[in-house]
Design brief:
The protein is mainly β. The chain is built from no helices and 29 strands. It has three domains: about 80 residues, Immunoglobulins (Immunoglobulin-like, Sandwich); about 90 residues, Sandwich (Immunoglobulin-like); about 80 residues, Immunoglobulin-like (Sandwich). Strands 2, 4, 5, 8, 9 and 10 form a six-stranded mixed β-sheet that branches. Strands 21, 23, 24, 27, 28 and 29 form a six-stranded mixed β-sheet that branches. The protein has a five-stranded mixed β-sheet with strand order 12-19-18-14-15, with no helix packed on it.
Length: about 260
């Protein structure tokens, strides 16, 4: 019986797209044995690594562009099968990951920019698979990291590598993102006064490139003294009475503390 190829796939993406060294699986009938069969990939002939007669595998040789995959079986009843298309894909490259800073407990989508990203089928942060937005461009892909447990200690953020897997291989960026603890306010001193009062805000997680302090929703001038203290000036604008004080960092917004305007 002449060999027949019914489908092909390349692991781990399991499509008919792949790159050098990935494993090609050929499914069909009458595929012979590892001794009698040759998997033809374009002009190349590759001896199967495994072959059951219905499933044959081999690593992909180097190459580029679309080629046909067929199986030649020597001996009586053998011959050359039909051909199915295979596409070689170049290796991916990531030049930039943005934003760099985000929340540990509620990460925002992250965009990875580079080349060869159209066939991205998985993005991982520190080995944990992220939620992938199906790519529509060869130069950018977006994924949302899975939430992680907060560090709850200095430096109040955790660095995570990013790995992009495509039909052409995998590219990893070390320290690609920093995921921050949510800031916490534990004390205001004083917690009452007129506009212009200098208030020492004590807490944790006061770190990151983008920190903001608000009194009753109004931005306040401040100096970040350390990762646990901020010196802020109660702004004009809020009306007399109790107002929420919130510290915002890349890790999110703190639970509000109360400052009373008099």
């Amino acid at each position: 019986m002449a060999p027949v190829v019914t489908s092909i796939s390349v692991a781990p993406q399991n499509t008919n797209q792949g790159s050098y060294g990935q494993i090609l699986t050929v499914n069909g009938t009458g595929l012979g044995t590892t001794v009698t069969a040759t998997i033809r990939i374009g002009a190349r002939g590759v001896t199967p690594t495994t072959n059951t007669g219905t499933v044959a595998t081999c690593p992909l040789p180097s190459g580029c562009g679309p080629v046909g995959v067929s199986v030649f079986v020597s001996g009586a009843g053998g011959g050359t099968s039909n051909s199915l298309p295979l596409y070689f894909i170049g290796s991916p490259f990531v030049a930039e990951v943005a934003p760099f800073e985000g929340s540990a407990t509620a990460p925002s989508p992250v965009t990875l920019t580079g080349e060869g990203l159209l066939t991205t089928n998985q993005v991982q942060f520190q080995g944990v698979t992220a939620t992938l937005t199906p790519p529509t461009s060869d130069t950018a892909v977006t994924a949302t990291p899975v939430a992680i447990a907060e560090l709850l200690a200095a430096p109040w953020f955790q660095l995570r590598s990013a790995s992009v897997r495509t039909a052409g291989g995998t590219f990893t960026v070390a320290n690609a993102v920093a995921l921050y603890d949510t800031p916490v306010i534990t004390d205001l001193e004083p917690d009452t006064g007129p506009a212009g009062t200098e208030v020492v805000i004590t807490g944790t997680g006061f770190v990151g490139s983008d920190i903001a302090v608000t009194f009753g929703g109004v931005d306040a001038a401040f100096d970040a003294i350390s990762d646990t203290q901020i010196l802020a000036t109660a702004p004009t604008g809020p009306i007399a009475g109790a107002q929420d004080v919130v510290v915002s960092t890349p890790g999110g917004d703190s639970v509000a503390a109360t400052f009373t305007y008099v």
